[in-house]
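Why do we bother with holo predictions? Because pocket geometry can differ from the apo form. Keep that in mind while you read this record for flavin-adenine dinucleotide.
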Amino acid sequence: MAIDFSFPEETQHLIAKVREFCDSVVRPAEEKIGSAPDDREVLVSQIIRMRKAALEAGLWLPHMPEEYGGMGLGHVEMAAVSSEAAKTRFGPYALNAQAPDEGNMHTLLHWATPDQKERYLKPLCNGTSRSCFAMTEPDVAGSDPTLIQTHAVRDGDDWVINGHKWFISGAAGAKFAILIARTEVDPEIPQAANSAFIVDIPSEGWEIVRDIHTMSGGHNHCEIRIKDLRVPDSQMLGGPGQGHLLGQARLGPARLAHCMRWIGQAETALNLMVERAISRYAHGSMLAEKQGIQWLIADSTMELYQCKLMVLHAAYKIDRGEDFKSEVSMAKHFVANSLNRIIDRAIQVHGALGYSTDTPLAGMMTQARWARFADGADEVHQWRIAMRTIEAYTKTGSVTSAAGDLPL
Ligand SMILES: Cc1cc2nc3c(=O)[nH]c(=O)nc-3n(C[C@H](O)[C@H](O)[C@H](O)COP(=O)(O)OP(=O)(O)OC[C@H]3O[C@@H](n4cnc5c(N)ncnc54)[C@H](O)[C@@H]3O)c2cc1C
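The structure, written out:
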């Protein structure tokens, strides 16, 4: 039998190493950051400390090839590392495997010219620069990139770009952006209208208007005005009209990388739920002894199990070079929704304490909410999943290939 749900010994050691790193380095640093929430110096010094320690521990850049200073892990191994690291808030950041840099590194690795790799990818990998990815706009639906209005017009050796972006994560402090803009006037297909550009930050014509305040506070998701921004043609990433292709190629693995981190968060919430249930007494017994609470725990456990299976299977397909679109889409939808439900149930079991900021749950809830629409809204994934299922049935008389193409 070829199916094996265990990890090789070296991956198990790696998970244990990440866990030990998070316990001994990340959690103490998070406590220091939490005790001085408005002190930027504390934040920066603790991040540098965590990152130096990750480098020394050989846990730096798990997703990148060794020639870039990374650990060269495949997607299945990344699932193991990321879900463990994400049980802490700063774990993925300490390892330099956080969004949006992780996705941007993959994008540059596959699409950048040697010169672009030298100038932008290497510093990102070394941890000496940060980046952002600028696609979404306030005036048109982000779910449909064919509507993008930001446009680039050729002028000699340069492109002149005008437009408006928002929710650009990590924009303040980033050294460069991968910017998606319309370049093609009459493309063969609507998806071939956009191109990607690498924009140095700061640049004249690139203005951060504000850090958009969200239900979870300000987290460096910025609104950007772009006015007569000049970018040399050599800064185009990929070819003209390949912006959509590049975005899609980036988003598949990047969505799964989110799922890996969400699994870590969901497991943390379930751990907290059980801990509270076994320690809180009401109406003659502990909460854990009440069937109503057991249902919440059982539903969460079953969902966490499904999340892990889906993510591991999608990662396995990517590693084997198989078509993974459908599996990543289903995993992204399922894990995002499970994450929200599990955190919500954990809050319920905690009562008022869960609603307070004395536990991490309230913060996790406000973060988890965006998982259901960013990087592909629930309904868009459902639409695509349904289309693939209908197509599979009409072509083969069976839905099997759309349901993970498993040998059952
Ligand atoms: C925390 C956070 C960080 C982000 N970071 C970045 C970033 O770094 N870079 C970047 O470019 N963007 C970023 N975004 C933007 C994100 O990618 C968009 O929010 C997402 O693509 C959805 O676009 P929209 O918000 O314009 O929603 P819309 O496209 O307007 O969609 C709104 C809703 O309409 C519904 N809908 C849309 N299409 C369909 C359909 N076909 N069928 C049925 N219903 C539909 C869905 O319910 C959807 O939630 C971020 C967003 C958040 C919240």
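The longest strand covers residues 217-232.
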